From TrEMBL:
Further facts: May also have succinyldiaminopimelate aminotransferase activity, thus carrying out the corresponding step in lysine biosynthesis.
Organism from which the protein derives: Homoserinibacter gongjuensis
Broad class of enzyme this protein falls into: transferase
Cofactor note: Binds 1 pyridoxal phosphate per subunit.
CDD domains: OAT_like (cd00610)
Assembly, per entry: Homodimer.
Record protein name field: Acetylornithine aminotransferase
Main localisation: cytoplasm
GO molecular function list: transaminase activity
Sequence positions that bind N(2)-acetyl-L-ornithine: 132, 271
Amino acid sequence: MTDYQELFSRVMMKSAPAPLAVLARGEGARVWDVDGTEYLDFLAGIAVNALGHAHPVFVDAVSRQAARLAHVSNYFATEPQLELADRLTRLSGGDRVFLCNSGTEAIEAAVKLARLTGKPRILALENGFHGRTMGSLSLTGKPALRTPFQPLLPGVEHLPSSIEALEAALVAGDVAALVVEPIKGEAGVVELPEGYLRAARELTTRHGALLILDEIQTGAGRTGDWFAFQHEGIVPDAIALAKGIGGGFPIGALMTFGAASELFGPGHHGSTFGGNPLAASAANAVLGEIERADLVGNARTRGAELRARIELIGSPLVTDIQGRGLLLGVGLAEPVAGIVASRALDRGLIINAANEYRIRLAPPLIIGDEELHEFTRLFAEALQAVPSNYLHTDPGDTA
Ligand SMILES: *Cc1c(COP(=O)(O)O)cnc(C)c1O
C-alpha cells in the first residue's frame, strides 16, 4: 500500500501542513479516508461543501456541463455564466458581478475597485483574513502570514475592531475603502462589536469611502441569511464571494452595488477561467438547490440547535460560542483546541482548530437531527478526553 504521508512530505511544497488523513470519497455530511475510516464532516472543506459531498444535483450539473461545454474564452459569453450573474444579483440585491476562481481573487478585484476611486488608503481589521496572494495578503491582518512577504501593497492600514478607530481613520477623507469580514472566520469565528457594520456603513458613506464586505466564508446561506450583511439591514458597496457558492467547484465573485458598479471599465480586469461555463453551472446548481431546499432556513434553525446542544454539554472548557447559523466558533478556556480537534478526529469527527483557543464549526448546510445528535456525542467525548495535565496552565498565561 502507498505510504501517503511519506509521499506527501516528499513531493508537496513545504507550505502545506502534514495532512490529518488522506480522504478518498464523501457522501452527504460524511467522508471516508483511503483506509475506509468514516468521518462526520463538521468543517465541509472550510465552509465550502454547502450541499455536503457528492450531492446528486452538483454531480449532475458538473457532469452534464463537462460533456457539453466546459470552457470558452472571455471573448464569448455562455448561458450558465449569465444565469449565475443574474442569480447572484437577485439574491444579494447587487447590480454587477465580476467572476473569478477563488476567494483571494475576489479580494484582488476588490483592491483594484478601491484603487479606481483614486483615493490612496485602504482600511482592514487586525486579525482579519482576506487571502494569501500579494494584494489580499496586504489586507490580511495576521502579522505571521504577512511578515515574510514584505514589502506588501502600500496604503493599507489595519485597525482595531472598534467604531472609534474606524471613525478616526476615515476623517481625513482620503480612504478608498474599508474591507471587512462580517464575522472573522479564520480568526476562529469571532463576531464584530454589536452595531459595527451599521456604523461602518454610516461612516464610510459620510467620508466618501467604499464599504467592501468579505463574505467569502459567511455567504451562500451559511449564517442563516443569503449573505451576512442582510442581517444588519445595510447595503454595502461590494461583497467578495467564493467558498460556499461553488459547493466544491473553485469559483469566486465580486458583486458591486449602486455607483461602485460603474468603477470598472473595459480592459480594467479579467481572468481566463473566471465564470467559465463549468464553474458557473456548478454554482447555479448549488445556489439553486440551497434555494429549493431552503437550506438558508436550515442553517438558521440547525445553527441555533447546534449552539444550544454545545451549551448543554456544559463543559467547563467552553468559554463562549460566537458566530451565526452554521458558522460557529467555540472558545476554550485553555490553549487546547488542537488537542480537542485531534481527539474528535480519533472518534470520527472533523472539526477545526482555527487557533489554540478556538474551535471552528462549519458543517454542510444539509445537516439534520442525526448529524447534530452524533456531533454532540462525539464533541462532548473529545472535550472530555483532553488530558488534565493540559488544563489549568499558568494563570499568568492570557488568551
Ligand atoms: C477563505 C477565505 C479567503 C480566501 O479564499 P481562497 O479561496 O482561499 O483564496 C478570503 N477571505 C475569507 C474571509 C476567507 O474565509
